[in-house]
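Entry 14: structure prediction run for non-specific serine/threonine protein kinase. Input pasted below.
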Amino acid sequence: MSFNGHPLSTFCGRPVYTAPELFPGQKYDGPAADIWSLGVLLYRMLTNTVPFKGMNWGQLQKKVLSGEYIVPFYLSFKVENFLKKLLPFNPRREKNLKDIMPAPWVNMGQEEEIKPYVESPSDVIDPWVIQEMLNLGFHWENIEDTSKKTYNNVMATYRILNTEKPEVQCHAVQVKPFHLPELQSRSLSPAQEVQPECSGFQQAEQQPMDHESGEKA
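Run finished. Output tokens:
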């Protein structure tokens, strides 16, 4: 598997999650490296630690390239076997999700075997994303190629923006201030300041009480 016809070469992500082939700086297969990182992530979720540790870059590289890690005793055999598929000792690793999804641990409690999610095809290009890409300097001709499933930097930018677009697109509406006609020609004096309205019960509560008669003044 490659990107736009070429293997990947960029080192990205945290070193503890990095696949072995990235350490020597060689070109690598993207999905296979992602599956390795998935294995490290699953190991951490199950054990609260990472399978490969090192005090520095050299030690970590040596640990990862050895492929040796400890599986805690409290993990089941099913999950242990699944981790071995994600983090195998041999350099020939699984290259896509179809290879790891049939694992018994993944399908526990399922009536049918879980299949990898397949995104439904769509030729509709989101207008909001188009405008954002135009603002970034992309040309319309290149953006239009995303509908042809051309996997390049334009498609990558489109997909990133498409996931980050606001769920509800809002538009600013300018509203002019409204003034009552009778208040435009005069201003209120201090004695005419508007008091907040209150109910009859609240008005009664605000009246002073005559302590001798027990009646309100």
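Notes: The chain is about 35% helix and 0% strand. Will compare against the previous run tomorrow.
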